[in-house]
């Protein structure tokens, strides 16, 4: 298992919290209210290639920073880096993921969920997580 406790990102594009962790081939989304929530989440398994969507709508793709030869000799842990994704998630895509997440979480009538902004998406996700 890889320890993933470092956040590396382009300082010109800071992540705005809250954010959603979107893991490939998983119906459940993970709502991260703060960077502290992210640090707690990184204690569990996160697949390379997962995505992080922040409240401003910026999509990041998570990738594993491959260790250098010197860090291997020093036995340093690998770290996750987030880079701006080449293909950002659009509102309709995120809404479909939120509907699927709500259904898996036991909510009914998920087809009626609607959002006209990323802020509304995050309000829905916060509600789902709190209920």
Keywords:
single chain; 131 residues; alpha+beta; 6 strands; disordered N terminus
How do the strands line up in the largest sheet? 1-6-5-4-2-3
Order of helices and strands: EEEHEEHEHH
Largest sheet: 6 strands, mixed
Structural class: alpha+beta
Mean pLDDT over all positions: 81
Q: Could you say which overall geometry the principal axes of the C-alpha atoms support?
A: globular
Would you identify the regions where 5 or more consecutive residues have pLDDT less than 50? 1-6, 69-77
N- to C-terminal separation? Answer: 31 Å
Beta-sheet strand percentage? 15-25%
Share of helical residues: 25-40%
Q: What is the count of DSSP helices, taking H or I runs of 4+ residues? A: 4
DSSP, total strands: 6
Rg from Cα: 16 Å
Quaternary arrangement of the chains shown?
A: single chain
Describe the protein's architecture and organization:
With 131 residues, the protein is of the alpha+beta class. It is 30% helix and 20% strand. The chain has helices spanning 35-41, 69-73, 91-104, 118-130; strands at 7-8, 19-22, 30-32, 51-54, 59-65, 79-84. The protein has a six-stranded mixed β-sheet, sandwiched between helices. Helix 3 (91-104) runs parallel beside helix 4 (118-130).
């Amino acid at each position: 298992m890889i320890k993933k406790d470092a956040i590396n990102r382009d300082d010109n594009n800071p992540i705005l919290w809250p954010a959603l962790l979107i893991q490939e081939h998983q119906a459940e989304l993970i709502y991260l209210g703060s960077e502290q929530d992210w640090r707690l989440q990184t204690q569990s398994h996160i697949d390379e290639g997962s995505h992080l969507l922040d409240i401003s709508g910026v999509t990041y793709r998570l990738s594993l920073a491959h260790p250098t030869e010197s860090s291997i000799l020093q036995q340093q842990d690998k770290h996750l880096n987030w880079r701006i994704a080449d293909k950002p998630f659009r509102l309709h895509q995120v809404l479909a993921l939120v509907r699927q997440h709500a259904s898996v979480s036991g909510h009914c009538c998920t087809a009626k969920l609607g959002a006209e902004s990323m802020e509304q998406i995050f309000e829905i996700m916060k509600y789902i997580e709190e209920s």
